[in-house]
């Protein structure tokens, strides 16, 4: 099997005793794997160690992780995690993606328009409060009670704009925790390499190994006083690479896993959702490739979208293969065995015996609603930054006028500052790309929902989709941050009075989008949480809580060791690559082209320095930018990818094959000092090291 070996998968699914022997799990900081670590590695992190790592780790609100690495607020993350900032700071005259950026000093650091960084400071369980509020309720009543209670808890917690609070559902609704974060919205670009080295190998090398990427960037967080943030908890850089079999931790924010879903929920992904999304993303990729061939500027403005789509395509295809292969069979057997245990216990049967059937009914409704929800509420029909901004303004005007507990969750007091920051920030938008993507996505709405659909007819009328897109994009003024701010400040009166065509489109489709969202929340999400919580409680009764919950893009700790792997073909894959191999792999042509800075520095580099390496750490998307740290809490690497086998990690983990791929700390140090001549940064990152030692 391509993504999960049968022997390892069987051990994962059926052998509870094997859990302590595999490096599986993305653990919450309030339930760390202390016992597993002690038994396998002889290391027991104390509260001080865990607190320091938690406070030094951060989340980039748009889907990545990072860590404080100096007392003056430096944040280490991936190059691909700051791509949005780099694109916003770039222009046809200065393309920071292709040329990179290295600040000469703090004064020359550049502010990212809409980067938000979150630092977890406290976790509080609120399960009892949620349970009491939703007990005995179903459907709309359950959904409303859940939304209202979550919003109330978050508002009580978020005492200021600098605090973000999220109620996180764990174990499919079996537990709820309140996560309190410090929110930082002044992040400045300090260093990012050229995309040719940050993503060396491009899509062909993505999710593969050996790798030779310097996928790193540095931001600096500034405080309300406009000065660099003073940080008490940060992760110093190690003075040497991690050795084979060394224990390594990742502290990051895995975006989501589906290991605890029922088979009914997995089957809809395998049989309906994934095939449709794969087809759509393949088409979207083709549109962007052709757009990029129009010229250098078109290629530049499409690059971020294209790289993201290519990455997503590999992920979705890998997930489909995992579910369509032996893993799906094994998970079905595991579910049947667990249901038999529940049915054999009268108390558990009363608690959860009908839960699987209840979820199965919700799944059928989900399938029936998927196309409409995907097109309208997820806004796949409106593939446009300008439309997204218009919808946010329209909904902000409506939602902010309501009591906090009645709002859509993203517009509550606790969540809205993230949207507000983007609405008032200035950044460039390519009208040409907007027209291309909006025209195509409007046509796809017609294909998915049919020409006879009432919403389709109302939006398109008799217009050609590309002609309509051109009218909308050239007619709107929402590309101007000042216009957006005036509309936001003006509230509902300003939105109601606006004649902006993109605002009018957002208003036109909003009722239909809200309707399908409400139906999903009431008839799909509510029963899945209710019945999922019952299954989780039965699992707690039988197995305890040693198994971590599915990932939720909230802070998690994973552990593993530095080691290569053996392919099913028998091929041995070493655990590291060296700098000299980068030059051997380079061809001079995209995507194996090296930037001039690396060609010029070749003679001064130590070719034996480790470039990239792999570990058994259990990670998924969202972990990008996670620090890889040793037992001392020192950075030995920076997670940026997984190998091809890890793609199936959404549904299960195989210690024999799944690998986390990271940039070695010594490669980062050597690059900053010798390629980019940023010795001031090396000194800040390495503390007491002298200029000579950095060399």
From TrEMBL:
GO BP, one annotated term: peptide catabolic process
Signal peptide: 1-22
Presence of the UniProt keyword Hydrolase in the record: yes
Alphabetically ordered keywords of this record: Aminopeptidase, Hydrolase, Protease, Serine protease, Signal
EC assignment: 3.4.14.-
Gene3D superfamilies in UniProt: Trypsin-like serine proteases
Oxidoreductase in keyword set: no
Top-level taxon of origin: Bacteria
GO molecular function, one term: dipeptidyl-peptidase activity
General function of this protein: Catalyzes the removal of dipeptides from the N-terminus of oligopeptides.
Family note: Belongs to the peptidase S46 family.
Name of the featured protein: Dipeptidyl-peptidase
């Amino acid at each position: 099997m391509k993504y999960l070996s049968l022997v390892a998968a069987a051990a994962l699914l059926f052998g509870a005793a094997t859990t302590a022997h595999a490096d599986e799990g993305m653990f919450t900081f309030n339930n760390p794997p202390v016992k597993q670590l002690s038994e396998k590695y002889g290391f027991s992190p104390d509260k001080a160690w865990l607190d320091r790592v938690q406070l030094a780790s951060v989340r980039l609100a748009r889907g990545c992780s990072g860590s404080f690495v100096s007392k003056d607020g430096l944040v280490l993350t991936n190059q691909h995690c700051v791509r949005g900032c780099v694109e916003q700071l770039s222009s046809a005259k200065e393309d920071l993606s292709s040329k990179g950026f290295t600040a000469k000093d703090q004064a020359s650091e550049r502010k990212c328009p809409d980067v938000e960084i979150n630092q977890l400071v406290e976790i509080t369980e609120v399960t009892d409060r949620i349970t009491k509020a939703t007990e005995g309720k179903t459907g709309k009543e359950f959904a409303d009670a859940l939304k209202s209670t979550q919003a109330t808890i978050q508002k009580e917690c978020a005492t200021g704009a600098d605090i973000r609070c999220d109620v996180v559902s764990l174990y499919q609704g079996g537990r709820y925790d309140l996560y309190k974060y410090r929110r930082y919205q002044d992040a400045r670009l300090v260093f990012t390499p050229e995309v040719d080295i940050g993503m060396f190998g491009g899509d062909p090398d993505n999710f593969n190994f050996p790798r030779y990427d310097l996928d790193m960037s540095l931001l600096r967080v500034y405080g309300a006083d406009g000065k660099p943030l003073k940080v008490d908890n940060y992760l110093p850089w190690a003075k040497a690479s991690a050795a084979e079999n060394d224990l390594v931790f990742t502290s990051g924010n895995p975006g989501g896993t589906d290991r605890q879903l029922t088979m009914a929920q997995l089957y809809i992904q395998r049989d309906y959702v994934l095939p449709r999304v794969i087809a759509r993303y393949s088409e979207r990729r083709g549109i962007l490739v052709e757009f990029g061939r129009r010229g250098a500027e078109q290629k530049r403005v499409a690059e971020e979208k294209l790289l993201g789509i290519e990455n997503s395509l590999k992920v979705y295809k890998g997930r489909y293969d995992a579910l369509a292969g032996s893993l799906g069979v094994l998970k079905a057997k595991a579910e049947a065995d667990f249901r038999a245990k529940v049915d054999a216990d009268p108390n558990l049967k009363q608690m959860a015996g009908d839960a699987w059937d209840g979820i199965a009914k919700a799944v059928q409704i989900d399938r029936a609603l998927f196309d409409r929800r995907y097109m309208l509420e997820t806004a796949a029909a409106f593939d446009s930054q300008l439309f997204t901004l218009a919808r946010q303004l329209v909904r902000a005007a409506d939602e902010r006028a309501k009591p906090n507990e009645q709002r859509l969750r993203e517009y509550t007091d606790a969540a809205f500052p993230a949207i507000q920051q983007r609405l008032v920030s200035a950044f460039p938008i390519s009208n040409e790309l907007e027209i291309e993507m909006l025209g195509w996505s409007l046509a796809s709405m017609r294909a998915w929902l049919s020409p006879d659909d009432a919403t389709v007819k109302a939006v398109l009328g008799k217009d050609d989709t590309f002609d309509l897109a051109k009218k909308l994009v050239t007619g709107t003024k929402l590309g101007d941050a000042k216009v957006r701010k005036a509309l936001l400040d003006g509230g509902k009166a300003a939105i109601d009075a606006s004649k902006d065509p993109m605002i009018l489109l957002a208003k036109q489709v909003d009722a239909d989008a809200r309707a399908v969202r409400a139906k999903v929340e009431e008839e799909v999400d509510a029963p899945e949480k209710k019945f999922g919580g019952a299954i989780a409680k039965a699992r707690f009764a039988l197995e305890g809580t040693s198994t971590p919950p599915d990932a939720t893009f909230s802070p998690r700790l994973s552990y593993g060791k530095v080691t290569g792997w053996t392919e099913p073909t028998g091929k041995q894959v070493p655990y590291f690559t060296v700098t000299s191999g980068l030059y051997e792999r380079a061809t001079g042509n995209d995507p194996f082209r090296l930037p001039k800075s690396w060609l010029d520095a070749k003679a001064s580099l130590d070719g034996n320095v480790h470039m990239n390496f792999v570990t058994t750490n259990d990670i998924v998307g969202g972990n990008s930018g996670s620090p890889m740290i040793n037992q001392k809490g020192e950075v030995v690497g920076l997670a940026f990818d997984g190998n091809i086998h890890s793609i199936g990690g959404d549904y299960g983990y195989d210690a024999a094959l799944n690998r986390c791929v990271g940039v070695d700390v010594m490669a980062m140090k050597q690059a900053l000092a010798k390629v980019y001549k940023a010795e001031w940064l090396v000194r800040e990152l390495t503390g007491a090291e002298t200029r000579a030692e950095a060399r």
